[in-house]
Specification:
Length: about 450
């Protein structure tokens, strides 16, 4: 992409309305613009990040055997009357009436829709277990939307729903999602710790929130520091198998959100120097809630012995749009964002220091062609801004690698490679920079 033909409205000054660094940086880097309180447009740069996060989530859901579909944003109130939640859900639900005076709503979640689809589609217990997911916009009329995309009203969520014949089988489905989540967040460069959580309005008896530690997090959390060191399951993990052991390795150590925190147990179970008390951002939440919806909505199937059995269900959410903010909270410095390669909007920023100088232009064109030809995503700054402004823009938008080409170096066939994270700069030959960048990007695309 040539920056001279792109749309990336940078703000030089920190916007006043943004309280936390990720929100400030997303506005400054031209990633989002607010359309109404808690409702955002995703500008080109931000949208690229959102799509990359979505794709990692999708790949790990698919690896774990979940099946993607797409449910509507607008749902019928009747389904929610069937489950009994229409009145319970309260003011967070955006309620809509159509021209025929029928009650609709903008879905805050989709248990009702999926339960009705699955109920009508399944014929035999032999079709279990199944896990169906979608990545779709949700709306919750939050009383206090804040922190940009972290607590929006409209937000993108991956929500998966598991269906099983028995409680034991359902726990296996839960463990599978648990393991998939560990991989998902690690691939974005995050350490997300599963913590015992309250089941909230959805109800049930087994629930974990995946928490990224960050000063600006909205939840107070408590855990054993060993949890920060455990390795996540490898890519070749058998997701058809029993992943209870993986889960137990994590839930064996103390980790709880404020609502579930038990100070006595924390002190008894965790040695003083291993106690982590911190703020955290909830990036995912998984629940096992048994037959709450299947009973209410008649989602049953005939078991092997002919008896009708209510399906055991779980639901599994990932806050995809919130993750964009969470990743920035975890990776930035005074100059701007520091993206991990796996979610960076572009992998390389190519800076031309003398646009219009024939030799410099042609070296840049050549590097651009070779990198993009190798499948590397390059943002080429071919504008006529001054060098200082170009450098600060590149640092602000946080692309992992910067290749800087100027007329002086070009005479000696030299360019500069800068690593955004370490700040390290190296002078290299044209050919050297191309092979080095291709190699590094490819190696770092998949972190685990
Ligand atoms: N208002 C919001 N803005 C952005 N992301 C959200 C919002 N509410 C929830 N999420 C994301 O969706 C995931 C699943 O939501 P859920 O646990 O059902 O919501 P809550 O924790 O608010 O009850 C959360 O872990 C979070 O990452
Ligand atoms: Mg939650």
């Amino acid at each position: 992409m040539h920056l001279s033909r792109y749309f990336m409205p940078i703000l030089r000054e920190p916007p006043k309305e943004a309280e936390i660094v990720s929100h400030q940086l997303m506005l400054r880097a031209g990633m989002i613009r607010q359309s109404a309180a808690g409702i955002y447009s995703w500008l080109p740069l931000g949208y690229r990040v959102l799509r990359k996060i979505e794709q990692i989530v999708r790949q790990e859901q698919d690896r774990a055997g979940a099946i993607e579909l797409l449910m509507p944003t607008i749902q019928s109130a009747d389904m929610w009357r069937e489950s009994g939640r229409y009145d319970d859900y309260g003011k967070e639900m955006l309620r809509i009436t159509d021209r025929h005076k029928r009650d609709l709503l903008f879905g805050p979640t989709a248990e009702e829709v999926i339960t009705s689809i699955f109920r009508d589609g399944i014929k035999s217990y032999k079709e279990l277990p199944r896990n169906l997911y979608n990545i779709q916009w949700k709306f919750r009329d939050e009383i206090r939307p804040r922190f940009g995309v972290m607590r929006g009203r409209e937000f993108l969520m991956k929500d998966a729903y598991s269906f099983d014949l028995s409680k034991e089988a359902s726990r296996l489905s839960y463990a599978r999602m648990f393991a998939a989540y560990l991989r998902t967040f690690a691939r974005m460069g995050l350490k997300a710790i599963p913590m015992a959580a309250d089941t909230g309005p959805i109800g049930g008896d087994l629930s974990h929130e995946f928490i990224v530690l960050a000063k600006t997090g909205e939840s107070q959390v408590f855990c054993h520091s060993d949890l920060l060191e455990i390795e996540v399951p490898a890519a070749n993990t058998n997701f058809q198998g029993d992943l209870t052991e993986v889960m137990e390795q994590w839930i064996g150590a103390y980790a709880a959100t404020e609502e579930m925190h038990d100070a006595k147990r924390f002190e008894a179970e965790v040695p003083k120097d291993k106690r982590v008390e911190a703020r955290g951002i909830e990036v995912g939440h998984i629940f096992h809630f048994g037959t709450k919806y299947s009973e209410a909505m008649g989602a049953r199937v005939q078991g092997p012995d002919g008896n009708l059995i209510n399906l055991e269900m779980g639901s599994y959410g990932v806050g995809i749009s919130r993750l964009v903010g969470a990743i920035i909270e975890a990776g930035h410095d005074d100059s701007g964002i520091i993206w991990p390669v796996s979610v960076a909007p572009f992998e390389v920023g190519l800076i031309n220091l003398r646009v219009g100088d024939g030799a410099t232009d042609s070296v840049c064109a050549d590097i651009y062609a070779k990198l993009t030809g190798a499948g590397i995503e390059v943002l080429y700054d071919d504008t006529d801004e001054r060098a200082g402004a170009k450098f600060s823009t590149m640092d602000l938008i946080g692309l992992p690698y910067q290749v800087v080409v100027g007329p002086k170096g070009v005479k000696d066939r030299q360019v500069e490679l800068k690593d955004r994270k370490s700040g390290e700069k190296q002078t290299m030959s044209f050919e050297g920079v191309i092979s080095r960048v291709i190699e590094d990007v490819q190696r770092n695309r998949i972190l685990v």
